[in-house]
Design a protein that fits this description.
Elements: H1 8-11, H2 30-66, H3 72-78, H4 81-86, H5 99-104, E1 109-110, H6 116-123, H7 132-140, E2 147-151, E3 157-162, H8 165-168, E4 169-171, E5 179-180, E6 182-184, H9 193-198, H10 204-210, H11 214-224, E7 228-229, H12 233-236, E8 249-250, H13 271-282, E9 289-290, H14 301-306, E10 310-311, H15 325-334, H16 347-358, E11 379-380, E12 400-401, H17 408-414, H18 427-437, H19 444-456
Parallel strand pairs: 1-5
Antiparallel strand pairs: 2-3, 4-6, 7-8, 9-10, 11-12
Helix pairs in contact: 2-15, 13-15, 16-19, 18-19
Length: 457
Amino acid sequence: MLRSSRLRKVLRTGGLMAACALAGGALFSVSSVSSHTRRSSSSSGRSTAEGNSAALVTQGRQIFRFDDFGDNAFWSGALQLDKAIEGRSHGGVGPGVSPKTALSLGLKVDASALPHSVLSALKAGKVNLDSPATTLALIKLNAVVGVKGHFSRSGRMTSIGLTCAVCHSTVNNSVAPGVGQRHDGWPNRDLNVGAIISAAPNLKPVTDVLGVDLATVRKVLASWGPGKFDAELFMDGKAFQPDGRSAATLIPPAYGMAGVNLHTYTGWGSIPYWNAFVAILEMHGQGDFTDERLDDPVKFPIAAKNRFGHVRVHGGQRDLVRSKLPALQAYQLSLRAPHPPRGSFDRAAAARGERLFNGKATCASCHLPPTYTEPGWNMHRPAEVCEDAFQASRSPENAYRTTPLRGLGTRNRQDRRFYHDGRFHSLNQVVEHYNSCNRLALSARERSDLVEYLKSL
Protein backbone atom coordinates (compact mmCIF):
# COMPACT_ATOMS: atom_id res chain seq x y z
CA MET A 1 0.00 0.00 0.00
CA LEU A 2 1.16 3.56 -0.60
CA ARG A 3 0.85 6.70 1.40
CA SER A 4 -0.60 9.92 0.07
CA SER A 5 1.30 13.17 0.56
CA ARG A 6 -1.07 13.90 3.46
CA LEU A 7 0.15 10.80 5.26
CA ARG A 8 3.89 11.35 5.01
CA LYS A 9 4.09 13.14 8.33
CA VAL A 10 2.38 10.34 10.27
CA LEU A 11 4.61 7.75 8.64
CA ARG A 12 7.87 9.33 9.83
CA THR A 13 8.29 7.61 13.19
CA GLY A 14 10.81 5.31 14.80
CA GLY A 15 14.53 5.14 15.50
CA LEU A 16 17.67 3.74 13.99
CA MET A 17 20.05 1.26 15.56
CA ALA A 18 23.72 0.90 14.66
CA ALA A 19 26.63 -1.21 15.94
CA CYS A 20 30.40 -0.64 15.86
CA ALA A 21 33.31 -3.05 16.29
CA LEU A 22 36.86 -2.15 17.35
CA ALA A 23 40.00 -4.11 16.54
CA GLY A 24 43.57 -3.86 17.85
CA GLY A 25 46.98 -5.33 17.13
CA ALA A 26 50.50 -5.80 18.50
CA LEU A 27 53.84 -4.37 17.35
CA PHE A 28 56.86 -6.64 17.34
CA SER A 29 60.57 -6.03 16.71
CA VAL A 30 61.58 -4.04 13.68
CA SER A 31 63.40 -7.01 12.18
CA SER A 32 60.27 -9.21 12.18
CA VAL A 33 57.60 -6.61 11.46
CA SER A 34 57.67 -6.72 7.65
CA SER A 35 57.35 -10.49 7.19
CA HIS A 36 54.92 -10.83 10.09
CA THR A 37 52.70 -8.11 8.66
CA ARG A 38 52.61 -9.78 5.26
CA ARG A 39 51.62 -13.10 6.81
CA SER A 40 49.09 -11.71 9.28
CA SER A 41 47.47 -9.26 6.87
CA SER A 42 46.66 -12.06 4.48
CA SER A 43 45.18 -14.16 7.27
CA SER A 44 43.46 -11.15 8.82
CA GLY A 45 41.99 -10.20 5.45
CA ARG A 46 40.37 -13.58 5.10
CA SER A 47 39.18 -13.53 8.70
CA THR A 48 37.81 -10.01 8.41
CA ALA A 49 36.00 -10.76 5.15
CA GLU A 50 34.53 -14.00 6.43
CA GLY A 51 33.57 -12.47 9.75
CA ASN A 52 32.00 -9.46 8.09
CA SER A 53 30.06 -11.72 5.74
CA ALA A 54 28.77 -13.87 8.59
CA ALA A 55 27.83 -10.80 10.62
CA LEU A 56 25.93 -9.30 7.67
CA VAL A 57 23.97 -12.50 7.11
CA THR A 58 23.09 -12.76 10.80
CA GLN A 59 22.03 -9.12 10.90
CA GLY A 60 20.10 -9.53 7.66
CA ARG A 61 18.18 -12.51 9.00
CA GLN A 62 17.08 -10.45 12.00
CA ILE A 63 15.99 -7.61 9.71
CA PHE A 64 14.20 -9.93 7.28
CA ARG A 65 12.25 -11.61 10.07
CA PHE A 66 11.60 -8.91 12.65
CA ASP A 67 12.25 -5.37 11.34
CA ASP A 68 9.20 -3.41 10.23
CA PHE A 69 11.21 -0.28 9.26
CA GLY A 70 8.76 1.85 11.25
CA ASP A 71 5.82 0.80 9.06
CA ASN A 72 3.70 0.29 12.19
CA ALA A 73 2.90 4.02 11.84
CA PHE A 74 0.98 3.12 8.69
CA TRP A 75 -0.56 -0.28 9.46
CA SER A 76 -1.62 0.82 12.94
CA GLY A 77 -1.49 4.61 13.01
CA ALA A 78 -3.23 5.08 9.66
CA LEU A 79 -5.10 1.86 8.79
CA GLN A 80 -5.62 0.82 12.46
CA LEU A 81 -5.11 -2.84 11.65
CA ASP A 82 -4.01 -3.49 15.22
CA LYS A 83 -7.50 -2.58 16.46
CA ALA A 84 -9.07 -5.16 14.15
CA ILE A 85 -6.67 -7.80 15.49
CA GLU A 86 -7.35 -6.94 19.16
CA GLY A 87 -11.12 -6.81 18.90
CA ARG A 88 -13.39 -4.80 21.16
CA SER A 89 -12.72 -7.04 24.17
CA HIS A 90 -9.08 -5.91 24.13
CA GLY A 91 -9.60 -2.24 23.34
CA GLY A 92 -9.95 -2.57 19.58
CA VAL A 93 -12.93 -2.92 17.28
CA GLY A 94 -15.03 -5.79 16.01
CA PRO A 95 -14.71 -9.43 17.03
CA GLY A 96 -10.91 -9.52 16.81
CA VAL A 97 -8.72 -11.99 14.93
CA SER A 98 -8.41 -15.47 16.38
CA PRO A 99 -5.55 -17.84 15.48
CA LYS A 100 -8.05 -19.87 13.47
CA THR A 101 -8.95 -16.78 11.43
CA ALA A 102 -5.31 -15.74 11.06
CA LEU A 103 -4.36 -19.18 9.76
CA SER A 104 -7.28 -19.12 7.33
CA LEU A 105 -5.85 -15.86 5.94
CA GLY A 106 -2.55 -17.63 5.31
CA LEU A 107 -0.58 -16.21 8.24
CA LYS A 108 1.94 -18.68 9.67
CA VAL A 109 3.17 -19.53 13.18
CA ASP A 110 6.83 -20.22 13.86
CA ALA A 111 6.94 -23.24 16.17
CA SER A 112 10.52 -22.48 17.23
CA ALA A 113 9.30 -19.27 18.88
CA LEU A 114 6.84 -21.14 21.10
CA PRO A 115 7.74 -22.34 24.61
CA HIS A 116 7.71 -26.11 25.06
CA SER A 117 4.63 -25.89 27.27
CA VAL A 118 2.70 -24.03 24.57
CA LEU A 119 3.79 -26.50 21.89
CA SER A 120 2.68 -29.41 24.05
CA ALA A 121 -0.67 -27.77 24.74
CA LEU A 122 -1.11 -26.98 21.05
CA LYS A 123 -0.45 -30.58 20.04
CA ALA A 124 -2.87 -31.75 22.72
CA GLY A 125 -5.59 -29.41 21.45
CA LYS A 126 -5.58 -27.40 24.67
CA VAL A 127 -4.86 -23.99 23.12
CA ASN A 128 -7.90 -21.84 22.42
CA LEU A 129 -7.61 -21.11 18.70
CA ASP A 130 -10.87 -19.14 18.68
CA SER A 131 -9.69 -16.38 20.99
CA PRO A 132 -8.06 -13.10 19.86
CA ALA A 133 -6.19 -13.17 23.19
CA THR A 134 -4.27 -16.18 21.89
CA THR A 135 -3.35 -14.27 18.74
CA LEU A 136 -2.04 -11.37 20.84
CA ALA A 137 0.02 -13.80 22.92
CA LEU A 138 1.51 -15.33 19.76
CA ILE A 139 2.38 -11.88 18.38
CA LYS A 140 4.07 -10.98 21.65
CA LEU A 141 6.22 -14.12 21.31
CA ASN A 142 7.27 -13.03 17.78
CA ALA A 143 5.68 -16.28 16.63
CA VAL A 144 3.37 -14.92 13.92
CA VAL A 145 5.65 -14.90 10.89
CA GLY A 146 6.12 -11.41 9.48
CA VAL A 147 3.97 -9.62 12.08
CA LYS A 148 5.89 -7.39 14.48
CA GLY A 149 4.04 -6.35 17.61
CA HIS A 150 4.92 -3.29 19.68
CA PHE A 151 3.89 -3.48 23.34
CA SER A 152 3.73 -1.10 26.27
CA ARG A 153 5.42 -1.82 29.59
CA SER A 154 2.10 -3.05 30.88
CA GLY A 155 1.99 -5.67 28.12
CA ARG A 156 -0.72 -4.09 25.97
CA MET A 157 -0.15 -4.12 22.22
CA THR A 158 0.22 -0.54 21.00
CA SER A 159 0.80 -1.20 17.29
CA ILE A 160 1.79 -3.79 14.73
CA GLY A 161 4.07 -3.61 11.73
CA LEU A 162 4.83 -5.99 8.89
CA THR A 163 8.23 -7.40 7.92
CA CYS A 164 9.70 -8.97 4.77
CA ALA A 165 8.87 -12.40 6.15
CA VAL A 166 5.10 -11.91 6.02
CA CYS A 167 5.15 -12.52 2.27
CA HIS A 168 8.49 -14.25 1.77
CA SER A 169 8.53 -16.91 4.47
CA THR A 170 6.36 -19.88 5.27
CA VAL A 171 6.52 -22.89 7.62
CA ASN A 172 6.81 -26.64 7.11
CA ASN A 173 3.52 -27.52 8.91
CA SER A 174 5.43 -29.90 11.21
CA VAL A 175 3.18 -29.13 14.20
CA ALA A 176 -0.13 -28.40 12.48
CA PRO A 177 -1.31 -26.79 9.23
CA GLY A 178 0.25 -23.33 9.25
CA VAL A 179 2.42 -24.08 12.30
CA GLY A 180 5.98 -25.34 12.00
CA GLN A 181 9.60 -24.40 11.39
CA ARG A 182 10.34 -21.32 9.28
CA HIS A 183 11.32 -21.52 5.63
CA ASP A 184 12.75 -18.07 4.91
CA GLY A 185 12.69 -16.98 1.30
CA TRP A 186 9.80 -19.28 0.37
CA PRO A 187 6.83 -17.37 -1.07
CA ASN A 188 3.76 -17.59 1.14
CA ARG A 189 1.28 -18.64 -1.51
CA ASP A 190 -1.43 -19.07 1.16
CA LEU A 191 -1.27 -15.46 2.31
CA ASN A 192 -4.38 -13.46 1.41
CA VAL A 193 -2.88 -9.98 1.46
CA GLY A 194 -6.00 -8.35 0.01
CA ALA A 195 -8.28 -9.81 2.67
CA ILE A 196 -5.90 -8.76 5.45
CA ILE A 197 -5.73 -5.17 4.20
CA SER A 198 -9.48 -5.10 3.68
CA ALA A 199 -9.98 -6.00 7.36
CA ALA A 200 -8.39 -2.70 8.45
CA PRO A 201 -10.94 -0.34 10.06
CA ASN A 202 -9.72 2.73 8.16
CA LEU A 203 -9.09 2.37 4.42
CA LYS A 204 -9.40 6.09 3.72
CA PRO A 205 -5.63 6.44 3.12
CA VAL A 206 -6.01 3.87 0.32
CA THR A 207 -9.10 5.42 -1.24
CA ASP A 208 -7.43 8.84 -1.11
CA VAL A 209 -4.34 7.64 -2.97
CA LEU A 210 -6.24 5.69 -5.61
CA GLY A 211 -8.98 8.31 -5.96
CA VAL A 212 -11.82 5.77 -5.78
CA ASP A 213 -14.55 4.90 -3.31
CA LEU A 214 -14.39 2.28 -0.57
CA ALA A 215 -16.50 -0.27 -2.45
CA THR A 216 -14.08 -0.17 -5.38
CA VAL A 217 -11.06 -0.64 -3.11
CA ARG A 218 -12.68 -3.64 -1.42
CA LYS A 219 -13.53 -5.15 -4.82
CA VAL A 220 -9.93 -4.81 -5.96
CA LEU A 221 -8.49 -6.26 -2.75
CA ALA A 222 -10.90 -9.21 -2.95
CA SER A 223 -9.77 -9.95 -6.50
CA TRP A 224 -6.19 -10.75 -5.47
CA GLY A 225 -6.81 -13.99 -3.62
CA PRO A 226 -4.21 -16.11 -1.77
CA GLY A 227 -0.57 -15.78 -2.73
CA LYS A 228 -0.91 -12.61 -4.80
CA PHE A 229 -0.11 -8.92 -4.43
CA ASP A 230 -0.19 -5.98 -6.82
CA ALA A 231 2.80 -3.74 -6.14
CA GLU A 232 2.16 -1.64 -9.25
CA LEU A 233 -1.45 -0.79 -8.38
CA PHE A 234 -0.32 2.18 -6.32
CA MET A 235 1.90 3.35 -9.13
CA ASP A 236 -0.49 3.18 -12.09
CA GLY A 237 -3.96 2.42 -10.68
CA LYS A 238 -4.51 -0.54 -13.02
CA ALA A 239 -6.45 -3.08 -10.97
CA PHE A 240 -7.52 -5.51 -13.68
CA GLN A 241 -6.15 -6.95 -16.90
CA PRO A 242 -7.99 -6.24 -20.17
CA ASP A 243 -9.76 -9.62 -19.96
CA GLY A 244 -11.08 -8.84 -16.47
CA ARG A 245 -8.62 -10.93 -14.48
CA SER A 246 -6.91 -9.40 -11.46
CA ALA A 247 -3.71 -7.47 -12.20
CA ALA A 248 -2.05 -8.92 -9.08
CA THR A 249 1.00 -11.15 -9.50
CA LEU A 250 2.19 -14.18 -7.55
CA ILE A 251 4.37 -13.47 -4.52
CA PRO A 252 7.82 -14.50 -5.79
CA PRO A 253 10.45 -16.47 -3.89
CA ALA A 254 13.27 -14.53 -2.23
CA TYR A 255 15.71 -17.46 -2.40
CA GLY A 256 18.04 -18.44 -5.24
CA MET A 257 18.85 -14.82 -6.12
CA ALA A 258 22.66 -15.04 -5.97
CA GLY A 259 24.05 -14.06 -9.36
CA VAL A 260 20.67 -12.85 -10.64
CA ASN A 261 20.69 -9.31 -11.98
CA LEU A 262 17.08 -8.15 -11.56
CA HIS A 263 14.76 -8.97 -8.70
CA THR A 264 11.22 -9.10 -10.07
CA TYR A 265 9.17 -10.59 -12.90
CA THR A 266 9.40 -7.37 -14.89
CA GLY A 267 12.81 -6.03 -13.91
CA TRP A 268 12.55 -2.73 -12.03
CA GLY A 269 15.95 -3.07 -10.34
CA SER A 270 18.43 -4.98 -8.21
CA ILE A 271 17.82 -6.60 -4.83
CA PRO A 272 18.65 -3.47 -2.77
CA TYR A 273 16.55 -1.33 -5.13
CA TRP A 274 13.50 -3.55 -4.77
CA ASN A 275 13.98 -3.93 -1.02
CA ALA A 276 13.95 -0.15 -0.67
CA PHE A 277 10.98 0.15 -3.02
CA VAL A 278 8.95 -2.38 -1.03
CA ALA A 279 10.06 -1.22 2.43
CA ILE A 280 9.14 2.41 1.73
CA LEU A 281 6.47 2.43 -1.00
CA GLU A 282 4.64 -0.82 -0.19
CA MET A 283 5.24 -1.58 3.50
CA HIS A 284 5.35 2.17 4.22
CA GLY A 285 8.49 2.11 6.29
CA GLN A 286 10.32 5.29 7.24
CA GLY A 287 13.05 6.06 4.75
CA ASP A 288 14.29 7.93 1.70
CA PHE A 289 13.60 6.63 -1.79
CA THR A 290 14.53 7.96 -5.22
CA ASP A 291 13.42 6.85 -8.68
CA GLU A 292 12.78 9.57 -11.25
CA ARG A 293 11.16 7.01 -13.54
CA LEU A 294 8.10 7.29 -11.30
CA ASP A 295 7.68 10.92 -12.38
CA ASP A 296 6.12 9.77 -15.67
CA PRO A 297 2.47 10.96 -15.38
CA VAL A 298 1.30 8.74 -18.24
CA LYS A 299 2.89 5.47 -17.14
CA PHE A 300 2.73 6.03 -13.38
CA PRO A 301 -0.01 8.63 -12.77
CA ILE A 302 -0.52 7.87 -9.07
CA ALA A 303 3.18 7.71 -8.29
CA ALA A 304 3.86 10.93 -10.20
CA LYS A 305 1.02 12.79 -8.50
CA ASN A 306 2.22 11.78 -5.04
CA ARG A 307 5.94 12.22 -5.76
CA PHE A 308 6.70 8.63 -4.80
CA GLY A 309 9.99 8.83 -6.68
CA HIS A 310 11.23 11.54 -4.29
CA VAL A 311 10.38 10.37 -0.78
CA ARG A 312 12.36 11.98 2.04
CA VAL A 313 12.07 11.78 5.81
CA HIS A 314 11.47 15.14 7.47
CA GLY A 315 11.20 16.84 10.81
CA GLY A 316 14.28 15.31 12.40
CA GLN A 317 13.10 11.75 11.71
CA ARG A 318 15.75 9.22 10.72
CA ASP A 319 15.89 6.84 7.79
CA LEU A 320 15.08 3.36 9.13
CA VAL A 321 15.68 1.53 5.85
CA ARG A 322 18.86 2.68 4.10
CA SER A 323 21.46 1.36 6.55
CA LYS A 324 19.79 -2.06 6.59
CA LEU A 325 19.87 -2.70 2.85
CA PRO A 326 23.40 -4.26 2.76
CA ALA A 327 22.66 -6.83 5.47
CA LEU A 328 19.22 -7.59 4.05
CA GLN A 329 20.76 -8.22 0.63
CA ALA A 330 23.46 -10.43 2.14
CA TYR A 331 20.85 -12.57 3.87
CA GLN A 332 18.76 -12.94 0.74
CA LEU A 333 21.81 -13.94 -1.28
CA SER A 334 22.57 -16.61 1.32
CA LEU A 335 19.16 -18.26 0.86
CA ARG A 336 19.62 -21.23 -1.42
CA ALA A 337 16.72 -22.59 -3.38
CA PRO A 338 15.29 -25.78 -1.83
CA HIS A 339 15.85 -29.16 -3.39
CA PRO A 340 12.74 -31.18 -4.29
CA PRO A 341 12.06 -34.10 -1.93
CA ARG A 342 13.04 -37.61 -2.89
CA GLY A 343 10.49 -39.44 -4.95
CA SER A 344 8.93 -36.25 -6.31
CA PHE A 345 10.23 -36.85 -9.84
CA ASP A 346 11.35 -39.66 -12.14
CA ARG A 347 15.16 -39.56 -12.18
CA ALA A 348 15.61 -41.43 -15.44
CA ALA A 349 13.06 -39.24 -17.20
CA ALA A 350 14.63 -36.13 -15.65
CA ALA A 351 18.03 -37.11 -17.07
CA ARG A 352 16.51 -37.35 -20.53
CA GLY A 353 14.70 -34.06 -19.90
CA GLU A 354 17.97 -32.34 -18.97
CA ARG A 355 19.42 -33.21 -22.36
CA LEU A 356 16.31 -31.75 -23.99
CA PHE A 357 16.50 -28.65 -21.79
CA ASN A 358 20.06 -27.98 -22.94
CA GLY A 359 19.43 -29.05 -26.52
CA LYS A 360 16.35 -29.53 -28.66
CA ALA A 361 13.95 -27.69 -26.34
CA THR A 362 16.30 -24.62 -26.32
CA CYS A 363 15.35 -23.78 -22.70
CA ALA A 364 18.99 -23.15 -21.80
CA SER A 365 19.26 -20.44 -24.44
CA CYS A 366 17.72 -18.21 -21.73
CA HIS A 367 17.65 -20.29 -18.53
CA LEU A 368 21.38 -20.95 -18.33
CA PRO A 369 22.54 -23.24 -15.50
CA PRO A 370 23.47 -22.90 -12.70
CA THR A 371 21.43 -19.74 -12.05
CA TYR A 372 18.85 -20.73 -14.69
CA THR A 373 18.60 -17.17 -15.94
CA GLU A 374 20.89 -15.08 -18.12
CA PRO A 375 23.99 -13.32 -16.84
CA GLY A 376 23.75 -9.63 -17.56
CA TRP A 377 20.55 -8.06 -18.88
CA ASN A 378 18.01 -10.89 -18.53
CA MET A 379 14.97 -9.14 -20.00
CA HIS A 380 12.80 -10.05 -23.02
CA ARG A 381 10.03 -8.34 -24.94
CA PRO A 382 6.60 -9.98 -24.51
CA ALA A 383 6.49 -11.15 -28.14
CA GLU A 384 9.68 -13.17 -27.60
CA VAL A 385 7.87 -15.38 -25.09
CA CYS A 386 4.48 -15.29 -26.88
CA GLU A 387 2.75 -13.45 -24.05
CA ASP A 388 0.63 -10.34 -23.72
CA ALA A 389 2.34 -7.13 -22.72
CA PHE A 390 0.03 -6.06 -19.88
CA GLN A 391 2.28 -6.71 -16.89
CA ALA A 392 5.46 -5.86 -18.78
CA SER A 393 4.00 -2.48 -19.73
CA ARG A 394 3.56 -1.63 -16.04
CA SER A 395 7.32 -1.67 -15.42
CA PRO A 396 9.97 0.81 -16.58
CA GLU A 397 11.50 -1.87 -18.81
CA ASN A 398 8.35 -2.93 -20.70
CA ALA A 399 9.74 -6.46 -20.65
CA TYR A 400 9.72 -9.76 -18.76
CA ARG A 401 12.69 -11.11 -16.84
CA THR A 402 14.01 -14.62 -17.45
CA THR A 403 12.88 -16.05 -14.12
CA PRO A 404 15.45 -18.18 -12.22
CA LEU A 405 14.20 -21.77 -12.07
CA ARG A 406 15.98 -23.05 -8.97
CA GLY A 407 13.40 -24.34 -6.49
CA LEU A 408 10.84 -24.95 -9.24
CA GLY A 409 10.29 -28.54 -8.10
CA THR A 410 9.40 -27.36 -4.60
CA ARG A 411 7.07 -24.66 -5.92
CA ASN A 412 5.43 -27.29 -8.11
CA ARG A 413 4.51 -29.26 -4.99
CA GLN A 414 3.72 -26.17 -2.94
CA ASP A 415 1.43 -24.22 -5.21
CA ARG A 416 1.12 -25.39 -8.86
CA ARG A 417 0.79 -21.87 -10.23
CA PHE A 418 3.36 -20.58 -12.68
CA TYR A 419 4.27 -17.43 -14.58
CA HIS A 420 4.02 -13.96 -13.09
CA ASP A 421 0.24 -14.07 -12.67
CA GLY A 422 -0.19 -17.81 -12.13
CA ARG A 423 -1.87 -18.28 -15.52
CA PHE A 424 -0.40 -21.75 -15.93
CA HIS A 425 -1.58 -24.37 -13.45
CA SER A 426 0.91 -27.11 -14.21
CA LEU A 427 4.41 -27.52 -15.58
CA ASN A 428 2.81 -29.44 -18.43
CA GLN A 429 1.02 -26.23 -19.46
CA VAL A 430 4.28 -24.28 -19.28
CA VAL A 431 6.05 -26.78 -21.54
CA GLU A 432 3.11 -26.86 -23.95
CA HIS A 433 3.22 -23.07 -24.17
CA TYR A 434 6.88 -22.96 -25.17
CA ASN A 435 6.56 -25.99 -27.40
CA SER A 436 3.98 -24.03 -29.38
CA CYS A 437 5.65 -20.61 -29.05
CA ASN A 438 9.07 -21.81 -30.27
CA ARG A 439 7.71 -24.45 -32.68
CA LEU A 440 9.80 -27.14 -31.04
CA ALA A 441 7.75 -30.12 -32.23
CA LEU A 442 8.45 -32.03 -29.03
CA SER A 443 6.78 -35.43 -28.79
CA ALA A 444 4.52 -36.34 -25.88
CA ARG A 445 7.37 -38.39 -24.39
CA GLU A 446 9.82 -35.50 -24.74
CA ARG A 447 7.42 -33.05 -23.15
CA SER A 448 6.89 -35.45 -20.25
CA ASP A 449 10.65 -35.89 -19.78
CA LEU A 450 11.14 -32.14 -19.81
CA VAL A 451 8.52 -31.73 -17.08
CA GLU A 452 10.32 -34.30 -14.94
CA TYR A 453 13.55 -32.33 -15.29
CA LEU A 454 11.83 -29.09 -14.27
CA LYS A 455 10.45 -30.92 -11.22
CA SER A 456 14.02 -31.88 -10.29
CA LEU A 457 15.27 -28.28 -10.07
